[in-house]
Amino acid sequence: MKPLKLGMVGGGQGAFIGAVHRIAARLDGQWQLVAGALSSDPQRAEASAQELGLDRNYADFRQMAQAEAARDDGIDAVAIVTPNHVHADPAIAFLEAGIHVICDKPLAATAEDAARIKAAAEALPTHFILTHNYTGYPMIRQAREMVQAGELGKLRLVQVEYAQDWLTEPTAPDNKQADWRTDPARSGAGAIGDIGTHAFNLAHFVTGEVPSHLAADLSSMVPGRLVDDNAHILLRYASGARGMLWASQVAVGNENGLRLRIYGDRGGLEWSQEHPNHLYVSGFGRPTQIVTRGSSAMTSLDAQRASRVPSGHPEGYLECFATLYNEAADLIRGKHDAGRLSPGLRDGLLGVSFVSGALSSAKGNGKWVRVKLY
Fold it and tell me: Do residues 270 and 291 make contact, with C-beta atoms less than 8 angstroms apart?
């Protein structure tokens, strides 16, 4: 089967996530990058295209959407890997051109932009995929199936945290990754929009639950910082379960500490992104079991499909992205049951609801607010 043709908006020189998407897209031979509008700076866009060997380089994403839609060999999908505030316009332009969209998270920087994407995506037959990549880990899919099968019993507690330390000190203006993330006009929010949405999505993916109310304490620990860099958020679910989400980018000693713990009235489970091939499963009164990726105890077919190498071999971050790109390809090709697990528009809208609710609660000194679903 020929690879599908991929375009990219953003992701030029100096961009971290663009390179991640390119590696993931080609990992399993499902995609070939053929075109890009890689930077808003024409010179950087051209230099980036030359480095990647792209002949079809565009100075503007609107021009790219129109030109690719008109070609017989035009792209099948576009990857949008720009800062948060530049998600909506490219997404809408390509959706309206009849080109499928694979967008990095979060969906948008504002509720208004999210609503615009929603209107365009729901009115058109094109697919919209959101790369909450941690949902691609095999053991996360194993955990999801176990929760849905009732192996933990009735859910009681959901604890999720994402702790980093890379923004512990004031950042230099030439730090491209920090510059836009700490600018409220471009990011929309700080830690909650960057890593908090990952934590929120992971808890939702595994449990299937959406909080009805939340109470948020958002802090800017670094003097002069205009966005939150630490967040403690309490969650109430309609089912009666309770949760807590901690997202921090100033927790010294933490590199990429995404961790999920879920407890029901019969059992519990625990998973850590820094040790992704192990899932700790506990039953009340019984020894904790370590389920490893690739072992016979990994019973989920979805987990097995997302696993590439034998047990004991490291498999991680890049492979998660690749799993989502594989599922996007299957969805575009119309394969049966394709895209069932991949995050999409609804997940993006839930993330925006989470961020908006947290900001509203924090403005009210941590008051409980209803999570408004967009």
Answer: no
Q: Which residues of 327-346 are buried (b: 16+ CB within 10 A; e: fewer)?
A: bbbbbbeeeeebbebbbbbb
Residue 184 has a CB neighbour count (10 Å cut-off) of 15
User: How far is 206 from 233, CA to CA, in rounded Å?
Assistant: 18
Q: Could you tell me the pLDDT band of residue 339, with boundaries at 50, 70 and 90?
A: confident
The domain made up of 4-126 is a member of CATH 3.40.50.150:
no
Residue tagged 């929009």 (tokens): 193
* Domains in the chain: boundaries: 4-126, 137-311+349-363
pLDDT grade for 336, boundaries at 50, 70 and 90: confident
Q: Is the pLDDT of residue 128 over 90?
A: yes
Full strand arrangement of the beta sheet holding 4-9: 56-57, 31-37, 4-9, 77-80, 100-104, 128-131
Considering the domain 137-311+349-363, what is its CATH architecture?
2-Layer Sandwich (3.30)
